[in-house]
Amino acid sequence: MNWRHNFLIEMGPTLFSSPWKDRIFNGVFVGVLLALLYASSLYSYLLFHSLVEIFSVVIACSVFMLAWNSRDFLESHFLLFLGIAYLFVAAFTLLHALTYRGMGVFPEYDADLPTQLWIAARYLESLSLLGSVYFLRRKINPPLVMGGYLALCAILLFLIFTRRFPSCFNEQSGLTSFKIISEYLICLTFALTIAAMAFQRRLFEPGIFTLLTLALVLSILAELSFTLYTTPFGFINKLGHFIGTLSFIMIYKALIESGLRRPYQFLFRDLKDKEIALQRARVELVARLHERDELIEELKKAASEIKTLGGLIPICAECKKIRNDKGYWGMLETYFMEHSDAQFSHGICPECARKLYPEYVDDLEDGSSTLE
């Protein structure tokens, strides 16, 4: 009893802190959900299948509602594009559940119809997930995208219900080659989506990136299991639906729960990136202001050392003396030295030398212009 008491004292605050409580609750919720689904499968496979597909439809529609109602606030249209896509994925998934053999909604069709609808939904989901990465830094025209998906889905439904879509399940031989190859192509598309998101990983919150990656990995495992079953009511088919349910739980936690509980860091780090960019701009601005102040001080210092002469300067026409501000006449060089940084060195020009010292002019060296 003593060690249990000490364990609860030391680990209790950690185990029952908010993050741990959330993880424990989530784990219990997922466990109970899977247990209930398994119990329903023991009672009726159609009940189990309907519950699984309805659960997926609810999550897909929730992604659409969250994305559509927050479209005016999203910097990136990754989520908006994905939300629109999941609305139509939900429609095909619901039709798949309603047309499942034994439901009696479309009695004139066999098990091929729900399988075709399933493949169409998975193609739609996988290609949309891959295409959504393109819109991490781009915007879409929502009505145009909505109209495009509506037209595409109308064409697919027309082909499926008029039996022009390739067969996916044969009552005698089971899965067709088209269905199996399609599942592998869908898995490849999911894998390419993981690689594309990893290449743009810095645009995602780390936790959300992990959840989306896990959802895609689970989707790949689910699709692989759907290449192995021989009857729509077999164990492998059931296992694939369990894995698919886990995949949609990861999508729920990545897109819906995070968007509602932590909207300030929802999906993208746009706000954080802008804050970092603003801080860098502020540091750069402060540095440039400091450089400007230093340059101004240098200019002021240089200006204080520069003395300029301007205006009218009274000078004697004969002796070239200059009258200063006090009215005294002084030598020209003295005036310039007092009012500028100029310095004078005295010499004598050849003309003055002939005038003052004619006897020495002949002794001047050739090329000399002054007497020092």
Fold topology:
Layout: H1 2-15, H2 18-43, H3 45-69, H4 78-98, H5 112-132, H6 142-161, E1 169-170, E2 174-175, H7 177-199, H8 206-225, H9 235-261, H10 270-305, E3 322-323, E4 329-330, H11 332-339, H12 350-356, H13 358-361
Antiparallel strand pairs: 1-2, 3-4
Helix pairs in contact: 2-3, 2-9, 3-4, 3-9, 4-5, 4-6, 5-6, 5-7, 7-8, 8-9
Number of domains: 2
Main structural class: mainly alpha
The CATH architecture of the largest domain can be given as Up-down Bundle
Largest sheet: 2 strands, antiparallel
What strand order characterises the main sheet?
Answer: 1-2
Write a short abstract of this structure.
The protein is mainly alpha-helical and 372 residues long. It folds into 2 domains: 28-270, Rhopdopsin 7-helix transmembrane proteins, CATH 1.20.1070; 314-361, no CATH class.
